[in-house]
Design brief:
The complex is a heterodimer. Chain A starts with 6 loop residues before the first helix and ends with a helix. Chain A has helices at 7-18, 20-24, 32-56, 65-81, 87-109, 114-134, 136-139, 161-184, 186-203, 208-234, 244-257, 264-278, 286-300, 304-317, and strands at 145-146, 152-153, 156-157, 236-237. Chain A is mainly alpha-helical. Chain A has one domain. In chain A, the strands form two sheets. In chain A, strands 1-4 form a two-stranded antiparallel sheet. In chain A, strands 2-3 form a two-stranded antiparallel ribbon. Chain B has a single domain (3-277), classed as ABC transporter involved in vitamin B12 uptake, BtuC (Orthogonal Bundle), CATH 1.10.3470. Chain B has helices spanning 3-34, 41-59, 62-83, 92-114, 140-162, 164-181, 186-212, 218-233, 238-258, 263-277; strands spanning 130-133, 136-139. A two-stranded antiparallel ribbon of chain B has the order 1-2. In chain B, helix 2 runs parallel beside helix 4 and helix 9 crosses helix 10 (263-277). Chain B is globular. The chains are: A mainly alpha, B mainly alpha. The A-B interface holds A 60, 62, 108, 111-112, 114-116, 118-120, 122-124, 126-127, 130-131, 133-135, 209, 243-244, 248, 251-252, 255, 284-285, 287-288, 290-292, 294-295, 298-299, 302 and B 35-37, 84, 87-88, 92-94, 96-98, 100-105, 107-109, 111-112, 220, 224, 227-228, 231, 261, 263-265, 268-269, 271-272, 275-276, 279, 288-290.
Chain lengths: 318, 290
């Protein structure tokens, strides 16, 4: 694990991120940048969770939106049906539902590896999409689920846009810290072992199928958390949130930013949402740009932006 | 369910299966030879349908589209394979990822060119009438789809078993590096394989256009259908594509009639079940799951 940021620099960055609504307010009266940054952080959480599979464990899931969307629906529906705005209840429901879904799908999908794992995760995610689409009386179907209530916690009210931004930023930092801890733990190293040489891991006595399943559930649960945050952010859940497009968005974020690096998925999420949300104001073919950028990275820079920066940094240092 | 609706739905199911066969055959061919699951397959299919839309609007000639679209999309495959996929030969997963990018680009360019609305074209002349089946009217075009699918299966089987290119394909599926060592121009063979696979997707798009719709998002829907078909039937064999399409087409159709609330999930349940019982798929040659 090289390239670790100095502790003080990380603290400054975290503080700047948390206080963004304050120091940006003089030049950002419309709060547009705040809402974009908030959505970037949500996608970053999703991408961080996906990279536990793609980068660490070598499990290329192309169906991660299933758990993201399940979390979004769970938070929205829990708020509505239980008539409660409690944040912990909403997040708890999101994490529980997406983890259970990951357990169900993972039980079949983790039996496959590589390209086949990718095919199965993609196909089963489409099944979840179909269910969300069809169960219109619960999810709103193709109309989407509107009027999601924003949460409260211990007298803190997250209805205000800046308060919600800070909630997302805090949870993002917690997830980042968590993923950093996981990656440097014995468990995280076992996942890397899966990627590098699963046979050897089996020989060492690891139950590799269970290890893969546990990673799948962990990643699914964090994806569900991201989904809940998006439901609160947009006050709306649509079938797009369980769709292939969202899965591809997360996957492309991981690859462009740099798989198997801590900050790669975060950088990738920022780049992807910049292309998808900011560029369409200027050009009509933003999605084509995203596709071409992705192709270029797969062809010529598989290590992603963070990987490229590391190589350049190492070269400068000699 | 009355016997009348059962027969009609059976025909619907078989014609949908015939379409899925055309689509899955291309996907399976590319995988068998190159070990690449082409995730742009749905985008090629979509392009076939939209090219058909334009040809029919401009000339009124569906049959012209039937020839033109597969050639055009096959030609596109002939460019994409050497330009992109060949750069990553041997890195199968990265090749698959590359096809995601290709798919994004094609789908977006289709949206920019043709717009993002649902479109439709009439049945081609000569096949635009209905015949009486079980006391009801049944569109002849759907019967044509069945005949076309069966005919194509026979042609592909004959090509596969009886011709030089078929022998090369069988050898390549068995052991591509050995084939290269024997002096076969493997670059050319891979490019042609990818082009034929893409062309088959385009052909499926043409056949589907008059009945199964032309709409944004059809690329994803039919990519998923073709993935389910090849997983259920088994990857890399022609018989697997036949078996998978023959099962999934009718299952999906009857599911939508009998259990509408579970229909969309039904084919995935079948896929999971098949994988648990037979990890190679029904007639496949590679283990998909452990």
């Amino acid at each position: 694990m090289r390239g670790r940021l100095p502790f003080s620099a990380a603290l400054v960055a975290a503080a700047l991120l948390l206080t963004f609504p304050i120091w940006s307010s003089p030049w950002e009266a419309s709060r547009y940048a705040t809402s974009i940054l908030r959505d970037m952080l949500v996608l970053a959480i999703l991408a961080l969770s996906l990279d536990l599979l793609v980068g660490s464990a070598g499990m290329p899931s192309l169906g991660h939106a299933a758990y993201f969307g399940a979390g979004a629906y769970a938070a929205a529906i829990a708020g509505q049906r239980l008539g409660s705005d409690d944040l912990l209840l909403g997040l708890g429901a999101a994490i529980a539902v997406s983890a259970l879904l990951a357990l169900a799908i993972g039980s079949v999908a983790v039996r496959a590896a590589g390209i086949f794992f990718l095919m199965l995760t993609l196909a089963f995610a489409q099944m979840v999409f179909a269910i969300a689409f069809q169960a219109a009386d619960i999810t709103g179907g193709s109309n989407g689920f509107s009027g999601v209530r924003r949460p409260t916690l211990l007298g803190l009210d997250f209805n205000d846009a800046d308060a919600l931004y800070r909630l997302v930023a805090v949870i993002f930092l917690v997830v980042l810290l968590l993923v950093w801890r996981i990656r440097s733990s014995a468990y995280g190293r076992a996942l890397v072992g899966l990627r590098e040489n699963e046979r050897r891991m089996r020989a060492l006595g690891y139950d590799t199928t269970r290890l893969r399943l546990s990673a799948f559930i962990l990643a699914g649960a964090i994806a569900g958390l991201a989904g809940a945050l998006q439901a609160y952010s947009l006050r709306f859940v649509s079938t797009n949130d369980v769709g292939v497009g969202r899965s591809v968005e997360a996957f492309v974020s991981v690859l462009i930013g740099g798989a198997s690096t801590l900050l790669g998925p975060v950088v990738g999420a920022v780049v992807v949402l910049f292309i998808e949300r900011v560029m369409p104001s200027y050009i009509a073919f933003a999605e084509t740009v995203l596709g071409v950028v992705f192709i270029v990275f797969v062809l010529a820079a598989r290590q992603g932006i963070v990987g490229l920066v590391r190589v350049a940094y190492a070269r400068v240092r000699g | 369910m009355t016997p009348e609706t059962a027969v009609v739905q059976a025909l619907n199911g078989i014609s949908f299966g015939a379409l899925l066969f055309i689509l899955a055959a291309g996907l399976s061919l590319i995988f068998g030879m190159m070990d690449v699951v082409n995730l742009a397959h749905g985008a090629f299919y979509m392009l076939g349908a939209y090219v058909t839309l334009t040809v029919v609007q401009r000339t009124g000639q569906f049959w012209l589209a039937l020839i033109l679209a597969p050639l055009l999309i096959g030609g596109l495959g002939l460019v994409i394979e050497p330009l992109l996929l060949r750069q990553l030969r041997g890195r199968h997963l990265d090749q698959v990822l590359l096809t995601i990018g290709v798919s994004l680009v094609i789908a977006d360019l289709i949206g920019l060119t043709w717009g993002r609305e649902i479109r439709s074209i009439p049945f081609p002349s000569g096949l635009d009438h209905a015949i009486a089946i079980m006391g009801g009217d049944y569109p002849v075009y759907r019967l044509f789809v069945i005949g076309f699918g069966v005919g194509l299966a026979v042609v592909l089987a004959v090509v596969h078993q009886r011709t030089r290119i078929g022998a090369l394909i069988r050898a390549g599926v068995d052991d591509a590096p050995m084939l290269a060592a024997l002096g076969v121009d493997i670059d050319r063979l891979f490019a042609i394989t990818f082009a034929v696979g893409a062309g088959l997707a385009g052909l499926a798009g043409v056949i589907a256009a008059p009945v199964f719709g032309i709409y944004p998002g059809m690329d994803v829907d039919y990519l998923i259908y073709s993935l389910v078909v090849v997983v259920v039937g088994g990857l890399g064999t022609l018989s697997g594509a036949v078996a998978g399409a023959g099962l999934i087409g009718p299952a999906d159709t009857f599911g939508k009639v009998l259990v509408p609330q579970f229909a969309l999930a039904l084919i995935f349940a079948i896929m999971a079940l098949v994988l648990l019982v037979k990890p190679t798929g029904l007639l496949g040659r590679v283990r998909i799951a452990r």
